[in-house]
Amino acid sequence: MFKNDTKSILLVGVGGQGTILASKILSEGLMRKGYDVKMSEIHGMSQRGGSVTTHVRYGTKVASPIVSENCADVLVSFEKVEAVRWLNYLKKDGTLIVNDFEIHPLPVLIGAAVYPDDAIEQLREKVENLKVVNATKIAEELGNAKAQNIVLLGTLIKATGLTNLDWESVLKDIIPPKFYELNIEAMKKGLTL
Amino acid sequence: MREIMTGNEAIARGAWEAGVNIAAAYPGTPSTEILENLSKYKEVYSQWTTNEKVALELAAGACFAGSRALAAMKHVGLNVAADPLFTLAYTGVNAGLVIVTADDPGLFSSQNEQDNRYYASHAKIAMFEPSDSQECVDFVKEAYEISEKFDTPILFRVTTRVCHSKSMVSLSERSQVSIKKYVKNVEKYVMAPANAKKRKYEMEDRIQALKEYSETTSLNRIELGEGEIGIITSGISYNHAKEVFGEKASYLKLGFTWPLPAEKIKKFASSVKTLYIIEENEPYLEDFVKTLGIKCVGREKLPWVDELTPEKIQRAFCPEIEECEPYKIEAVAPPRPPVLCPGCSHRGFFYELRKFKDIVVSGDIGCYTLGASPPLSAIDSVLCMGASISGAIGFEKSNIKAERQQKVFAVIGDSTFFHSGLTGLIDAVVNKAKIVICILDNRITAMTGHQDNPGTGFTLMGQPTEKVDFKKLCIACGIKPDNIRVIDPYKLGETKSAIKDGYESEEPFVIITTTPCALIKEVIRARADMKCFVDQEKCIKCRACFKVGCPAISQNNGIVSIDRDMCNGCEICAQVCPTQAIKREE
């Protein structure tokens, strides 16, 4: 690819896990910071329990809205096996953040496919910058498993060095007031991981 | 002011800024959010129509009447609207008319990957192709000016990655465009043969004028770079090409792509040493460039199938760039296909239907298409919106010829039935097709994200309205009242008995299911405390409950359990359990 300062982040998960909301908050924050931002999402059929991907790219001037194979500076996987599915998108020496949480797809539930049981161990062997996070459990302890997306967003922000940004005000503008406190706590937790 | 917007939000914004008064659409991924967003602007009258043909005809009438109008649809929707499209090219417009076609390269949510740019050249109407959200806003506004200046409808072609990608947009105020006077003009608006022939001459004059516009408009711009490579491109492919080549190439970036600017293309081609054509789907630009006698490289290097990506362009045109080996581990990710949701009202119906072995099931487009997937595997064919019923008639007539004893079922959702199922039902009655028409009415257009339809009692703008009654409608069309069953598909006994009655019927037969989609907010609220669980003492681990294909049921370390958060207590699994081990919480 043509050399430029554009950074690429790929968020992957399962429909309903909140990847799109996390990407929205991330993009809004990056925009306020003055970056050119592009975000691309695939939804539609994926609402029905399929695999969901969101691409976020930012820099001085972003061309393509999609992250190419081998080009993601950070790959955030909201579910364990999705990290395996999208691993080829991670750049050499890029950071992989994996939520240590399993959602078994229907072919596995009905016995037509197998869910690998040692994916994390295999990832650990190959990927130097791997962060395994128990985001779902942390969010549950904070009161609502749904806040797992903001825990992971916090971890992502730390990994990308985007901490010098007023994320609390971004959250305030996007998250409904009812869930604001929960999500602020989730973000704080994520930032410590 | 600047905002980050999806292409669909930006098209809606651009239409509002352009002073659009009337907008219509039938929902379809990736176009649905255009009308959802337009309906938020109070100045615009927005509505869902029963199908895309109605949307385009409505928009045509509005533009004849003097209002700037917009019709939006997914690519296959334009096939449905093709009839008015081709003749609108003859009538032209009064106020501006923009038709948005949202194509789906990569088939993320579609049954085919057709390239609708050919509709512009085939119907001979001007075409715009934006690359990002800012261009969506700017191009829509320009499109209305061009539509009125040249008296032509505009095809506004976007793709999934334009519709569903967000980028920065500068916002402006709404233009004050007054509604034009309507003057009766039979020669322009009544397309009887004699008038149409005259209009066709005028259309040919218009095309000449549009060709001149294409040569001079800044929408078709040359960007000079270093080096000797030149790239002709349009739409999202421009961004991907720019990602790969950056300033190392020159670009002819085309935003107005029918009629194409022949002279500008020749000039650009002669200024570069090597010419690449980078485009997604069909070689639409490339074929045109080749007819000009210009040597170029494109399709022979790029894949014919699936969406175009920067890495595909790099591999095709810059094989000398060495790529490092991507990370790879031995573990393989199991497939994660879309599935019917927990509590889905279609599940019970398909579970019972598949038990009938000597039947064939003609399917349709919607969530219930997923009834074709294992373990339900209850559907034989899916072609397009509305094809279930008409296809079933064909199956049945052929079976009679072959003396084949095989009952034919058609399954169709509520919104799809209104879209184009009703005509098939009338055909079945009049031609005495002994088929079973199953209208799976879940009270919403579910697959595209819960839009209202003529069965829900609300309009797009939130007004309460009349609901069409399926049973009365079927009776009015000639289905005998005794041949109609209205059932709750959560109740398997009732469902089975209705299917059996249909199976044995010697006349056209209708089954209507009435349980709403489990994801409707009111349904979620009403069923929030309804949860099933597995009584471990009674469970014999026979896995009968797995045959209903519910994602809430799993087996870990031998123990079968139901995910409490996912379950909505539909009790379909409980009804198939041979030992009554599954129960609803008290």
Q: Would you count the extended β strands of chain A for me?
A: 6
Residues in helix, % of chain B = 25-40%
Class of the largest domain in chain B, according to the CATH hierarchy?
Answer: Alpha Beta
How many discrete structural domains of chain B? 4
The portion of residues forming beta strands of chain A comes to 15-25%
Strand order of the largest sheet of chain B: 3-2-4-5-7-6-12
Mean pLDDT rating of chain B: 97
Strand content of chain B: 15-25%
Structural class of chain A: alpha/beta
Quote the distance from N terminus to C terminus of chain A. 32 Å
CATH superfamily of the largest domain in chain B: Thiamin diphosphate (ThDP)-binding fold, Pyr/PP domains
Distance between the termini of chain B: 55 Å
Please tell me the CATH architecture of the largest domain in chain B by its name.
3-Layer(aba) Sandwich
Low-confidence stretches of chain B: none
**How confident is the prediction overall: mean pLDDT of chain A?**
94
Question: Largest interface: which pair?
Answer: A-B, 64 and 62 residues
Per DSSP E runs of 2 or more residues, the count of β-strands of chain B stands at 22
